[in-house]
Design goal:
single chain, 337 residues, five-stranded antiparallel β-sheet, 22 strands, 4% helix, binds beta-D-mannopyranose
Length: 337
């Protein structure tokens, strides 16, 4: 395993909103860890679907049972949120015999003015990724398709490319990569959001200088005239890391990366920043929470003035926002270093 720099820093163009934008205190029902939210602009407002792991706290962990709900919040400015009184999904309501155990890490993509969610789905027979449609009020979810197990992390592009729906995904290739965590980012296409194929590798973990473990899709890509701009999460593991959050030991660090993909053939990486876009640095990203040192982006919005809002879960505990200009983000992907 290659040795990685102990310190990682966020790109200088990244401006953090100085405190988390959504925490358990904002939730009008049982809530504990609020993170990894999908965010989009839809019908004149910002809409967020967020993950809430609840039922345990630092004192009761690991003996108390975790439940996961998916909540909905709306906003006029993308910064201040009003949370709906009821979650759209709650694993506590599932029967123990049901095949699905929970849904989590929702990402929103609007295609032809219709909202879709990509979610991780734990089942009694493996972790899967599912694609669901949501009604226009974000009140109900209908699952359209689910992957074979060990492929739970996916995002949809906001439009068809060459007539097909496209998703980025990260299968857990447990056997073929030597039994180690070496998990890469792939792309598949579909005529109908149900049947997926034409699967190709996009980016391998060894292509990312600040990852030695796995990479995976983050927020759904945004279209620019230079290419599809897309974030990804990048994980480095260090066996010397010890207690770092609620668990006995947490050895991973999650950072965010950024790259540009070809508009016509998005399996082709046009450019990628050799340094992280967002690395854990703020105290709520490094010193407190369930799993510290975790940045997990899952929403990105391009504003008409060229500002890009990047929403990310921090420490699997709170939801945060950082901004940067589109030009700076593209420069990060294209400049020679
Ligand atoms: C990943 C996912 C994410 C989580 C991250 C860090 O494998 O489970 O939901 O944010 O681990 O714990």
């Amino acid at each position: 395993m290659k040795i990685l720099s102990p310190e990682l820093y966020s790109a200088s163009c990244i401006k953090r909103i100085e405190k988390p934008i959504l925490t358990k205190e904002d939730i009008p029902y049982d809530a504990s860890l609020i993170f990894n939210a999908g965010v989009a602009k839809y019908n004149g407002q910002y809409i967020m679907v967020f993950r809430n792991d609840y039922g345990a706290n630092e004192e009761t962990f690991p003996n108390a049972r975790f439940y996961t709900s998916i909540g909905v919040a709306t906003s006029d400015d993308g910064i201040h949120w009003s949370v709906r009184n009821k979650a759209i999904f709650d694993s506590k309501e599932l029967l123990p015999t049901e095949e699905i155990k929970r849904l989590y890490d929702p990402r929103i993509t609007i295609i032809d003015n219709k909202p879709y969610l990509c979610m991780a789905m734990d089942t009694r027979h493996g972790v899967r990724g599912c694609i669901a449609e949501v009604d226009e009020n974000f009140e109900s979810i209908k699952i359209l398709s689910a992957s074979a197990p060990d492929n739970r992390n996916m995002v949809l592009f906001p439009e068809r490319i060459n007539g097909k729906y496209v998703r980025l995904e990260r299968p857990f290739t447990v056997y073929s990569r030597g039994g180690k965590d070496r998990f890469d980012l792939w792309l598949s296409t579909s005529p109908d959001l149900v049947f997926w194929g034409e699967t190709e590798l996009v980016l391998a973990v060894e292509d990312v200088p600040y990852a030695n473990d796995k990479i995976g899709p983050a927020a759904p890509p945004i279209k620019t005239d230079k290419g599809w701009l897309t974030t990804f999460h990048a994980v480095d593991k260090d066996e010397s890391r010890g207690k770092n959050g609620w668990e006995e030991s947490w050895k991973k660090r999650y950072s965010a990366g950024i790259m540009l993909l070809d508009l016509e053939n998005p399996t082709k990486v046009i450019g990628m920043s050799k340094l992280p876009l967002i690395a854990p640095q703020a105290h709520y990203e490094t010193e407190v929470g369930f799993r510290q040192q975790v940045i997990f982006p899952s929403g990105m919005i391009l504003e008409p003035n060229g500002e890009v809002k990047i929403y990310y879960g921090a420490s699997d505990t709170v939801e945060c926002l950082a901004t940067a200009s589109l030009d700076d983000l593209i420069a990060l992907c294209t400049e020679k270093r």
